[in-house]
Write a structure and sequence with these properties.
Layout lengths: L23 H4 L6 H9 L5 H13 L24 E4 L8 H4 L7 H12 L20 E4 L13 H18 L5 E5 L1 H14 L1 E2 L12 E6 L6 E6 L4 H4 L6 H15 L2
Keywords: 4Fe-4S, DNA damage, DNA repair, Hydrolase, Iron, Iron-sulfur, Metal-binding
Organism: Streptomyces sparsogenes DSM 40356
InterPro entries: UDG_Type-4/5, UdgB-like, Uracil-DNA_glycosylase-like, Uracil-DNA_glycosylase-like_sf
Amino acid sequence: MPVSHPEQPKSPEQPEHPEHPEHPARSAPGAGDLADLDERVSGCRACPRLVRWREEAARTKRPAYREWDYWARPVPGFGPDGAALAIVGLAPAAHGGNRTGRMFTGDRAGDFLFAALHDVGLASRPTSTHRGDGLELRGVRVTAPVHCAPPANRPTTEERDTCRPWLVQELRLLRPTLRSVVVLGSFGWQAALPALASAGWEVPRPRPPFGHGARATLRAAGAGAPLRLFGCYHVSQQNTFTGRLTPAMLRDVLHAAAEAAGL
């Protein structure tokens, strides 16, 4: 279903330098709520390689999506204010989230994830096709450490670190209600731990290693409830098509995380 989006304004001055007011390091801490944060995220142009790639994907398109007006911008997180559970992935897909403008929407990884969320009662419907399709998440926020689609689904370390302030501020804004986090894949795990530390939780040292079914409890720095952390294989086709991650395995992790979050 084609969806129109307003064209992103393009300033001749790109916010690549950390001192630029629109760079994540400067812009993210000023977001007062999730709606404000999402708006700031969707205008980011801090990583030149990612900007080129996401916009090139929107120009060339896949034949099946030739009538779509691609989002072609950074994809913000998705889910309600006051979420008790967060799901952290990797980055949007070039013809999934980069096309639809919503995390894990419009590709097979998202189909796998939302079907499981629906099965455990955390999503209003089992499919996610486009923004405005009626899907609602129940107490869950879905996000990623990198908000732009990267070439070959592989952000660089520098791109991950440049994008981190967005995730840190998102976690800070969720902190009053957030009780558990599911991290999909080792890349997300490595990105999430320092973000969680910056957002106000104590990450054990040595850091807990990633693995499917990995669990850790992070104490809040100062007052606040502890956070339960869960590792899960990523919902990529490489994992789901080979059976490395099955629907039952994903449901088990989501059910445990939902229970820890009081959902």
